[in-house]
Design a protein that fits this description.
The protein has 86 residues and is mainly α. The chain has one domain (20-85). Helix content is 72%, strand content 5%. It has 4 helices and 2 strands, in the order H-H-H-E-E-H. The protein has helices at residues 3-16, 25-41, 44-49, 61-85; strands spanning 55-56, 59-60. A two-stranded antiparallel ribbon has the order 1-2. A hairpin with a 2-residue loop joins strand 1 (55-56) and strand 2. Helix 2 runs antiparallel to helix 4 (61-85). The longest helix has 25 residues, at 61-85.
Length: 86
Amino acid sequence: MNINVCKALDRFFATYYQPDPEMKKRHEQKLILITFGLFIAFNIPILLLFDSSQNLFGIPKVYVFIFLVWASSILLTFYITKRYNE
């Protein structure tokens, strides 16, 4: 990677990304784990497992999978951040 690009990324993250000092480390770790889980779940080999001609309630399986993973990640993130704010 070009050194100028690395310096620009360092400045960007130093300026715009300020981690919350009060958030517990375990909550940060859970959110990072959800992010990696989404990267894996929305990867092409995993999506191809659900790409078939069969439908579930008239909707292709791949669409159901994408929606369920997306909705569950929102609910998990909400639950983690709600517990953090209590």
